[in-house]
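Contributing new records

If you add data, match the layout below exactly. Sequence lines come first and carry their own label; structure lines follow with theirs. Keep one chain per record. Anything else will be rejected by the validation script.
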Amino acid sequence: MLSNNTLPPETRKILKDIPSLIDKTFPMPGRFRGALPSQIAELSRLLTNKRGDRRLSYLGQPNYLSAYLRYFLPWNLYRLCIILYSVDITLSPGDTITDLGSGPLTFASALWIARPDLRNIPLEINCIDHCAPALEAGKKFFAAVAGENLWKINIVRDSIDIRRTDVTRNKKRAAMVCAANIFNEIYEKLPHNNTDGLKRIAADAAFLMHNEASADACILTMEPGVPQSGKFISFLRAAFMELGRLPVSPCTHAAACPLNGGKKRWCHFAFETADAPKELHRLSAAAGIPKERLVLSYLLTGAVSKTPRSGAETSREKTREARIISDAFPLPRNRFGRYGCCANGLVLLAGEKERINEIGSGSLFAPVFAAGTSARHEGERDAKSGALILEVK
């Protein structure tokens, strides 16, 4: 189940200690601490509604890098740990991982924190980013998190150009490719009604990652949980399927995406942050951007399929599981609902508020169509979304 509540105690403890570890690794003179909340707020504006004013080298500026390390790095670690702990990733000694747009090595650090089963496996991670100061800071931070370890970290200063067929130019393809919060910096410049442009970016991104990966590799993409990102993930999924890579998570099936890049409904997951470090919450409040929830969209694809796509779809669809992809929301007659995605398309789980709240964002509700289960197929369609309505008892 995809949930922050399932993180093991050791991972939760490490995440709780991250703010103090950052302060210890990157000491900040007391006279500069007063300006930190305003610098975080300004960087947040540059990453959102003032994107046009942002330069590609923004993390090369010491004040912005410090703000990023103390605010955005801990929250992004939290997001990635939820995904990395929940999904199926199998790696062997000597495997290579390629991380596109590494920044301060957020992915490598999150993988170490979330997956203790991989710590004793010798791995080589190529961390690629255009910003040298961020990479150097990340290497220092990873060393503080992991200490003496068996992983070989290669920092590679290079830009991520999705029009290139590869980045690392290595003969050895990676057993895993990751791209976390990188492609939104490309498609955010598009008008939101430019569907064809977004599809082209998704196709180029899929082709780039596919060429970086070995045939049996997994590929993980994480983006902000906003509508445009959800549309991008939907198009990325379709592009990967054209390349023979079927979705592994969060999808429960390999049929066409029922959201199809829709404007009002998109695949995203929200998690409460009550157990995040108190220091991080205080810093967020001081910056005027408190975080009560973390929202994300992601896609994990697997090895290139050796069977016809229709056969793969048939075997996956037998599960009839639905992935919950929305918050709870009110329905008529004092009922509540959540949207889910399954092989039958978009479904609307409807029932009493308490029962619907028990079914968390990102969880699997299964099976939804078999007789004698907790949901009953009514055969009705939701007028707003067209989703099949399933009454939850």
